[in-house]
Amino acid sequence: MSEQLAGLTVGLIGAGNISHVHVAAWKALGARVLVYSLEGAPELAEQYGLEVMPTLEALLPEVEFVDVVTPSATHKEITLAAIKAGTNVICEKPLTLTAADSHEVIDAAKAAGVRLYPAHVVRFFPAYKAAYDAIQAGRIGPVAVARFFRQASSPAGAGWYREVDRSGGVIMDLMVHDLDHARWLCGDVTSVYAVQNPPTVDGISPVNVAAHVTLTHDTGAISHCRATWGATGTTFQSGFQVAGATGVLKHKSTEYSGITEELQGGDEGGDLLIPASTLGESPYLSQLRELAIGLRGGPEPRVLASDGATAVYLAEAARASMETGRVIDMKTFVSTGAVA
Description:
Elements: E1 9-13, H1 17-28, E2 32-36, H2 41-48, E3 51-52, H3 56-59, E4 65-68, H4 75-84, E5 88-92, H5 99-112, E6 116-119, H6 126-136, E7 143-153, H7 164-167, H8 169-186, E8 189-197, E9 209-217, E10 222-230, E11 237-244, E12 247-252, E13 259-263, E14 270-274, H9 283-295, H10 305-324, E15 328-329, H11 330-336
Parallel strand pairs: 1-2, 1-4, 2-3, 4-5, 5-6, 7-10
Antiparallel strand pairs: 7-11, 8-9, 8-15, 9-10, 11-12, 12-13, 13-14
């Protein structure tokens, strides 16, 4: 248990699949966890030794901050309720389903003096963080081209995921991780172009679908993100390849235990594995520790509410591009919400 987090009481809101990894992390940090959820709270509490709260209103005064792990469409309402009660918030990605809503909750938090952090866990996966550190250190020179991919068994066969106004579809639900990471590694985004196959029809996502998004960055880099909801049983995979002027960073979740560097020239040529192994503590534990320390007044974490809002903007721009077939200029889109 971290001494910085001694005596921590966390309010977990939601009891779905992602709640299990969050609970495991909070328990590892020695936190007392109170849980409220419309469904599944008693079962989750019994499994992990949590305390069930009957209502959100009863939960909020009892906790230091809340961890929101509910379906995406509920994030805004729950976060605003916590902010109104003066309670700090960690919220699973996406922060909200629209950038306008993200800015509404950010503005409300600022006005109330409440801290708000989005949970973008990919920034805490060792291979992705190693790529960021290598780029910041100039190991591969200026980034020119980057590719990111992510695939998973489709959750859209049942439930709310097929309803794009509730899930945001495959881009907001799955690709938002890589949109955030592409911006983190390559710089702010100036334009977005996206395609999806099969297309969304009448607001209903296909069960099995692939989306491709091309981003241009203010650094001159170009990045491509691919996200796939595959057939039932599709193995989860993710990875990246980032090429700079003097080297390439590569990672694939099914092939490497770390990140491979291919460097040109000097005494460091050849392939290096950084880190030697990514086996260790859960990235969710790393993430929640860093966010909780930030909420207690420690250093700001590596991901802020503004990053969460920007990731939502990029996902919205991608959907606008798919709907219009046009490249979206982000400066115009952010300032007016209109297609350039």
